[in-house]
Design a protein that fits this description.
single chain, alpha/beta, five-stranded mixed sheet, about 35% helix, about 20% strand
């Protein structure tokens, strides 16, 4: 099956999308593509590929004549030598050079499918040919993974199949003060129990944790609410203990991926989305044009530690008047205690008191909503995002928090920006981070 034919085959499964993703990425790095008719089916395929991450590198393409930034057209008009000669990069990135033939190069790419994927690129100014014996049947996929949501107070795990169905789950305290080694061992034990119960082998594990996180090197850097965890190589520790591929991601970014692919992002048909997670701490993740926005050092999204009141009290990170100091669960409890004089009232109880008409509870949640509006307004003005999804334990306050936030938005952004902002509660809650981490695990398993 050649490249043009493969791209125009109707695809319905994740396996098909990944197989086509191999084709697109390989041809992208190799250089030139034959002209082809842009059919409706091709447009649908490319859109689906972008939505599940297989065209993630398009925004950084040096040659935008090869694939358009939106991934909706193909062209053979590029004659740049740099594009034609990038087959070496394809081999380096995706596999190994198997040999040369008639001025061409044979590159073998890793494939999640039963049959190997082989592409032949003929370098030159006038032609480029590809052949592929890759089938699009999805057989042999490594489909069972585990997503782990590692928080300051709890660890939640989920066994997830290829359709993002949650087959099994587990939950346990983190005991963060006891250090990361014991957390690793208990995660390994929990995964072993899931494998025995489900009768399946876990192929990879995705972990998310509070930030800051060094995603690329697999290090939990310095979570404010886990003070004894500093520069912990958690990915390597879990990989060594488990013997399976492991990914590590910021919890807000993992939740955003889960929400984007299976929750509010999917139901709203969004291409851009911000996910703000409010629990023990506050973090955020932004998806721009279907892809996570990481920033240069992978620290984008720490909106919880952005100052919204220069005269406010410091949050857990020491930043004065930050969003977290007004909206996190512990902050709500402290603010209620300060207003009412009653200590030990939990966030859940504050919601119940709100419903009972308690004026202190109403003041706390309305003030938190106003603070949330300030954070949302900052992101909307800076990033030009319209869909904001709120997750985490505090999000369970629902409209008690979101209604005052929507009402306050015009104070914190342009008047024409506020009406187009959609502010909603997460559709997934705790499972969002697990599904997002599992989505990343499945990517490396393949």
């Amino acid at each position: 099956m050649d490249f043009a034919t493969a791209l125009c085959v109707p695809v319905n499964t994740v396996a098909d999308h990944r197989a086509l993703g191999h084709l697109v990425r390989g041809v992208r790095d190799a250089g030139r593509v034959h002209d082809m008719t842009i059919t409706d089916q091709l447009r649908q395929n490319l859109t689906a590929l972008r939505s599940n991450g297989n065209l993630r590198a398009l925004p950084s393409l040096r040659c935008r004549k090869l694939l358009s930034p939106k991934g909706m057209s193909l062209s053979s008009k590029c004659s740049r030598r740099g594009c034609r000669m990038r087959v070496a990069k394809a081999a380096f990135t995706y596999g190994s050079v198997q040999g040369s033939e008639a001025g061409g190069v044979l590159v073998r790419l890793p494939s999640p499918l039963d049959t190997a994927s082989t592409f032949r690129y003929t370098l030159g100014r006038t032609s480029a040919q590809q052949s592929c014996n890759c089938t699009l049947n999805g057989k042999g996929m490594k489909d069972t993974v585990v997503g782990v949501d590692l928080g300051a107070s709890k660890i939640a795990l989920g066994l997830v199949d290829a359709s993002d169905a949650l087959l099994d789950s587990a939950r346990m305290p983190t005991y963060a003060e006891r250090g990361p080694e014991q957390a690793v061992q208990r995660i390994v034990d929990a995964i072993a129990g899931m494998e025995r119960t489900a009768g399946r082998r876990v192929e990879a594990v995705g972990v998310c944790s509070p930030g800051p996180v060094d995603h690329f090197n697999g290090i939990i850097v310095a979570p404010p609410n886990m003070p004894t965890w500093r520069n912990v190589p958690f990915r390597a520790m879990l990989h060594d203990a488990l013997g399976r591929p492991v990914t590590l991601e910021h919890d807000a970014k993992a939740s955003a991926l889960g929400e984007f692919h299976a929750g509010a992002g999917k139901s709203h048909g969004a291409r851009d989305m911000a996910f703000i997670i409010i629990g023990t701490g506050v973090g955020a993740a932004m998806i721009i044009d279907g892809q996570l926005f990481r920033g240069r050092r992978d620290e984008a999204g720490e909106v919880g530690h952005v100052t919204i009141d220069r005269n406010g009290a410091p949050g857990s990170s020491g930043v004065l008047g930050c969003l977290e100091s007004f909206t996190s669960g512990p902050s709500l409890e402290r603010r209620y205690a300060a207003l009412s004089g009653a200590s030990g009232v939990t966030g859940e109880q504050i919601v119940q008191l709100y419903d009972a008409g308690d004026r202190h509870a109403i003041a706390v949640l309305e003030d938190a909503g106003d603070a949330l509006a300030a954070g949302v307004g900052i992101l909307a003005m800076v990033m030009d995002i319209d869909l904001f999804v709120i997750g985490g334990s505090v999000a369970r306050a629902g409209e008690r928090l979101l209604r005052p936030a929507r009402a306050a938005l015009p104070k914190y952004c342009y008047k024409h920006v506020a009406p187009r902002i959609t502010l909603v509660e997460t559709a997934l809650h705790e499972t969002g981070a697990i599904l997002g981490a599992a989505w990343q695990a499945r990517e490396i398993a393949h």
